[in-house]
Design goal:
By secondary structure, the protein is α+β, with helices and mostly antiparallel strands. The chain is built from 2 helices and 4 strands, in the order ββββαα. It has one domain.
Length: 100
């Protein structure tokens, strides 16, 4: 399973790409642009907050889903992908145990 294929259990589609959590401007609820770079992340309850740099501007996006896949699997893939463009991250394969 690829990161871009992770979906909501409620059937509301996929959770990738993540969406901005701050509402600075008209794109406040928009998906993160594919060229944005992942700079870091942190856990906040059952979601991951992603620090993303887009054209020199640092912003925060949220990623939340209902397992499976396990929370730790997605977190590990993202931690190992710091500095990668958001568009490329969607193509990253999750560990095979996430398919259970």
């Amino acid at each position: 399973m690829k990161l871009r294929e992770v979906g909501q259990s409620s059937g509301q589609g996929t959770v990738w790409p993540p969406h901005w959590v701050d509402s600075t401007g008209p794109d406040g609820d928009a998906a993160v642009p594919a060229h944005g770079l992942l700079e870091g992340l942190e856990r906040l309850g059952r979601r991951l907050l992603l620090r993303i740099n887009v054209d020199g501007q640092r912003r925060t996006a949220s990623l939340q889903w209902d397992p499976p896949p396990p929370f730790g699997d997605i977190e590990a893939v993202l931690l190992g992908s710091i500095g990668t463009a958001i568009g490329e991250l969607g193509e990253r394969e999750l560990p095979s145990r996430a398919r259970r």
